[in-house]
Specification:
Blueprint: H1 11-27, H2 31-46, H3 51-57, H4 61-124, H5 128-143, H6 153-165
Helix pairs in contact: 1-2, 4-5, 5-6
C-alpha cells in the first residue's frame, strides 16, 4: 500500500473526510491543506477509543507482562472478595437474628415473672411490700443492660437486699 493511500478507511470515514474537507475549502483554505486537515481530523476522531492499545505498543515486554498479570489477578480477586463478603453478610444476619429472638424471649420471660410476682404479692398481703421492692430492683437491672447483653443484676439485687434488711 503506497503512502497516502486511503483505501483502508471505511466508507463512513471517507464520507466524513470529504465533508470536513468541503468545510475547510468554504472557509478559503487551499485544496491540499483542506484535505490534509480533514484526514487528520478523521484519524483523531476514529482512534479515540484505541488510545490504550497505541500506548501498549510502546511498552517494554516486562511492562506488557506485568499488565497481563495484573489484569488476570484482578478478575480472580473480585470473585473471591464478593464470595467472602456474601458469606460474612449471611453470618452477620444469622447472628443478629439469633440475638433478636433471644432478647425477645428474655423480655417475654421477665414479663411473665413480673405477673407471677404481682399475683403472689396480692395474695400475701403485708409481705407484699418486700416483694415489690425486689421486683423494682429487677426492673432496674433489666434496664441496665450492657452492649453484650449481660446484666448487672447481681449488684443491684444485693443493694436491694441490704435496703430491705434495714
Amino acid at each position: 500500500m503506497p503512502r497516502g493511500d486511503k483505501s483502508s478507511y471505511s466508507n463512513r470515514q471517507q464520507r466524513k473526510a470529504r465533508h470536513i474537507e468541503e468545510g475547510y475549502e468554504d472557509r478559503g483554505l487551499p485544496e491540499d491543506e483542506a484535505e490534509r486537515r480533514a484526514w487528520a481530523t478523521v484519524n483523531k476522531q476514529s482512534t479515540r477509543g484505541k488510545s490504550k492499545t497505541a500506548a501498549s505498543r510502546n511498552r517494554s515486554a516486562a511492562a506488557k507482562k506485568a499488565a497481563r498479570t495484573r489484569k488476570r489477578n484482578a478478575s480472580k480477586t473480585t470473585v473471591r472478595s464478593t464470595t467472602r463478603r456474601a458469606g460474612v453478610r449471611k453470618a452477620a444476619a444469622k447472628r443478629s437474628s439469633a440475638r433478636k429472638t433471644g432478647a425477645r424471649k428474655a423480655i417475654a420471660r421477665k414479663a411473665v415473672a413480673r405477673k407471677a410476682v404481682a399475683r403472689k404479692t396480692t395474695a400475701r398481703g403485708s409481705t407484699g411490700r418486700k416483694l415489690t421492692r425486689k421486683t423494682t430492683a429487677r426492673r432496674a437491672t433489666t434496664r441496665r443492660t450492657t452492649a453484650r447483653g449481660t446484666t448487672t443484676r447481681r449488684t443491684t439485687v444485693r443493694k436491694a437486699a441490704r435496703r430491705s434488711s434495714r
